[in-house]
Amino acid sequence: MVEELLLMAVDSARQTGIRFADARIFRHHRLEHISVRNGEPEVMSYGDEPGVGIRVLGPGGWGFASSTLLTPASVRETARTAVALSRLARARKTEVPFLPESRTPREGSYETPVREDPFAVPLEEKLSLLTEAERRLHVAPAIKSAKAEFTAWQEDKEYLSSEGASYHSLITHVGSGLTANAISGGEAQRRSYPNSFGGDFAQAGFEFVRSLDLLEHAAECGREAVRVLKAPQAPEGTMNLVLGSSQVGLQVHESVGHATELDRILAYEAGFAGTSFVDAASRGKLRYGSPEMNIVADATIPGALGTFGWDDEGTPAKRVPLVTKGLLSGFLSSRETAARQGLTESGGTMRADGPLRMPLIRMTNINLLPGDHSFEELVEEARDGLYMETNVSWSIDDKRLNFQFGCEVGYTIKDGELGELVRNPLYSGMTPAFWGSLAATGDESTYHIWGLPNCGKGQPTQTMHVAHGAPAALFTGVRVRGAR
Fold it and tell me: Can you tell me the distance from the alpha carbon of 396 to that of 408, in angstroms, rounded to the nearest whole number?
C-alpha cells in the first residue's frame, strides 16, 4: 500500500515544467517520553505521527505540501498542492541549480541494529528504573529537586524520487539521564549524569539505556551537586583551559556545525538563529583554527544519532571533511546549495524532523577527531588554568562568531595537576580566535560520541537529532570568569 502511494505521489507531480519530485511516507513517527521528579511521575507521553511529505522543484523554485492522511485521494491532492506552490515560487530570476544524484546505492534499506525494542519494554519496568534512580539522587537535604528521564523515538519511512531513487529506513533513537538540583543559603547548583539536557542518546535499543547504569551513578551525581554548593567561585582572567568531551562537543555544534551549513552561509536560512560568519568563497582559505583542529561530518558512524542510509533527497550517507588542519575544507550542503557553490556532489545533509516538514540542511555527526594526549597529559600541558565539564548555559550570536558558555563544574589546574572544585565557571571568545588557541586534543580514551536530540532550526522550527564525537581538549589564553 505504501509503495503504491509513493508512486501515486511522484506520478501526480510529473507535470510540464517540473524538474524533480520526491515523496516521503512515514508509517510511524513515534515518540515516548517518561520522567520522574521528586518521587512522582512527571511526564508519561506517547505519540505517533504518520504522514506524507511531497517536494517539487518547478520552473521558479520549490513547492512542498504534506498531509497526515495516507489515502489515495489525499496523496493526489497533496501532490497537486506541492506542484501549485512550486509554480508560485517566482522569487529567483534564474533557474534553481540542482545536482543530479549520481552516487550509489540509489536504493535499498537501512535499519538501526536493536537488541531490545524500547517500545516493547514494559512501561512498569521503565518507570521502576527511573523512580529508583531518581530516589538515589536524594543524598542530602540540600537536594531539593531531582529528575530521571527516558526518551525513545522511531521513524519508519519510505522514500521515492522522480529520478528513481528509493529506500526504506527504520531508525530508532533512545536516551536517558539524571539531574540533581541542590539549594542552600540562596545558592543553587545542578549536576547531571551522563550529560546535561536529558542525558546521553544513541541510535540503539533499550540496551543503551541499561548500559548507562543510572542506578550506579545516581548517588554520586547527587553528592557532586551538594559539593558544588560549597565550592568557591571560579577564578577570573585569561588562562589555559581544558574542556571535557561533552563541552567540546557542544562547542563544535554551535561554532562549527551551524556555521558550516551552506544554507546559512548563502543567507537562505536567516530567520532562526541567523546566518554565519563563514564566507561561501572561503573554502580552502579560511583559517578556522589551529593545525590541531580536524573536523568531519560523518553520517556513517554506527550507533550515532546523525547516522542514516540516505538523506531526505535521496543522497547516500557520506563522510565530508569540514575543517582540515585548521583550514575550512567543506560545507554541510544539499543538492541545490552544492550546485550553487560549484561543488561536484551534495554533502547529503538534507533532513526533515517528520513527514509534515520540508527538508533543510542539518548536521549529521560532526566530530572533532582525537589526538594523542591522555587527559592527564592535557592537564599537565596546561600547567596553570582551569578544567570545565558538562554544559549548563550557552549563548552565541547569529553569525556563530561571539559566544559564551557556562559549565556545571570546574577544577583549578595548578602545576599541571587538578586542584580544587569551583562553581559557576564561564568562558567566552570569538570562534576563529578560540579554535586558533587549540593546543592539543585528547586521545581515544577521552573521546565520546554524544547524542544531541534538540538541535533547532527553521521556521516553523524543526528539532533534529544530531551527534558530536569529541575528545577532551586544551585551549590557551581563554577568557574565563565565574557567573554571579
Answer: 18
How far apart CA 106 and CA 160 sit, in angstroms, is 10
Q: How far apart are CA 152 and CA 158, in angstroms?
A: 20
- What confidence tens digit (pLDDT) does each residue in 209-256 have? 999 999 999 999 999 999 999 999 999 999 999 999 999 999 999 999
Distance CA 138, CA 183 (A): 12
Separation of alpha carbons 248 and 2, rounded Å: 42
pLDDT in tens, 454-466: 999 988 899 999 9
Residues of the chain with CATH 3.30.2290.10: 2-229
- CATH tag, 2-229: 3.30.2290.10
Task: Note whether 144 and 179 are within 8 A (CB).
Answer: no
| 376: CB partners within 8 A, 6+ apart | none
> Could you identify the residue written with the cell 522514500?
159
372: which DSSP letter?
S
Name the DSSP letter for residue 419.
Answer: E
DSSP-derived letter for residue 254 is I
Find the angle CA(36)-CA(389)-CA(295) to the nearest 5 degrees. 110
* Residue 432 preceded by cis peptide, ω within 30: no
The residue type found at 132 is E
β-pair type (327-328, 319-324): antiparallel
**CA pair distance 32, 49, nearest whole angstrom:** 12
Specify the DSSP class assigned to residue 258: G
Q: Which residues contact 41 (CB under 8 A, 6 or more apart)?
A: 34, 35, 127, 131
Per the document, the length of the chain is 484
**Alpha-carbon span 49 to 394, nearest angstrom:** 31
* 428 exposure class (CB count in 10 Å sphere: 0-12, 13-18, 19+): middle
Residue showing cell 535499519 = 111
Question: Is the C-alpha dihedral spanning 108, 112, 116, 119 positive or negative?
Answer: negative
* Burial class of 430 by CB neighbour count within 10 A (0 to 12, 13 to 18, 19+): middle
Alpha carbons within 13 A on the beta-carbon side of 111? 8
pLDDT digits (tens, 9 = 90+) for 91-101: 556 788 999 87
